Amino acid sequence: MPHDAVRRQPSLHAAWPYVKRILTWVFFAGVAWLIVRQARAIEWSQVLESVRGYQLSTLAIAALLAAFSHALYSTYDLIGRRITGHKLPATRVAAIGAISYAFNLNFGSLVGGVAFRYRLYSRSGLDNPTITAVLGISVATNWLGYLLLAGAVALWHPLDLPDDWKLGTSALRALGIVLTLVPLAYLAMAWKSRRRSWTVRGRELTLPKLRFATLQLAVSTVNWAVIAAVVYTLLERQVDYPTVLGVLLLAAVAGVLTHVPAGLGVLEAVFIALLVPPLNTPALVGVLLTYRAIYYLAPLLLALVLYASVEARGRVKAIRTVRR
């Protein structure tokens, strides 16, 4: 190899983190521009009018469904507790799950799903391998239900996608078969597989027993269905539930793929692309803003209070341990 090529490689390697950072900021700037462009085209007076038009009973039902969904998500960590066998109190585990989920929704998975879990679990005395296992179980639980529902919607109620998306009904149904087979294969492996663990990049992955795998799939499926029910309630039955479920599932994965915290702008863009018409844009934006307030922001405020309480208890426990 020529000497100049050898000299260039380290410099390119050293420059890559800066290039990656610049590309990331360019991407987020592009997303921000799209959000601003979309926002400027909306009649905000009509949006506010649609939000004010909600009856208290509708908001109460949506809030109860949202609370139920957040409670369901906190059980993902309780399933992880049973599978890993760690001995932290169930109430503390549920609280950590609820806090992590609220921060995950609003600030992204690295902050909520990962950072908060590691901090809160480690302060409670759990070791890193166990925390990683609990996190992995939670992630798997979440996506198992997603895949089953997304596959079912694609098979039996495929969305009417815009023509420029170039994905017809036949392709959607084929995708639905693939998506549905993944969680079913997981159950089959949990039932019949003789090998129960694998090592991936130095970390051991353990296959749960069938009853836990079934519980993972059931809880997650119900949770995704309830999240869609929140939006369906706020839409006041203007769109049929299977369509709302399908659009929500598509918006959720779009938000994950774009890495935008809280799917800000992405959620709205997908709903507008698929539900306007029959709905008008201001009314739909009003629905989605109300959904964000109920499902994202209100739980975040509660999570902040709960997090402060958990941190205070952790400090008291640490002081008592030092004094002993």
Whole-number tally of structural domains: 1
Strand order of the largest sheet: 1-2
Main sheet, how many strands, which sense, barrel? 2 strands, antiparallel
Contiguous runs where pLDDT drops below 50 for at least 5 residues: 5-9
Give the helix proportion (percent range). over 70%
Structural class: mainly alpha
**Overall outline:** globular
Mean pLDDT: 82
Calculate the terminal CA-CA distance, rounded to whole Å.
63 Å
How many beta strands in the DSSP annotation?
2
The helix/strand order is HHHHHHHEEHHHH
Gyration radius, in Å? 22 Å
Strand coverage percent:
under 5%
Number of helices: 11
Describe the 3D structure.
- With 324 residues, this protein is mainly alpha-helical.
- It has helices spanning 3-40, 44-52, 56-84, 90-107, 110-123, 128-156, 169-192, 210-234, 241-258, 266-275, 281-323, and strands spanning 197-200, 203-206.
- A two-stranded antiparallel ribbon has the order 1-2.
- Helix 8 packs across helix 11 (281-323).
- The longest helix is centred in the last third of the chain and has 43 residues, at 281-323.
- It is globular, with a radius of gyration of 22 Å.
- The relative contact order is 0.12.
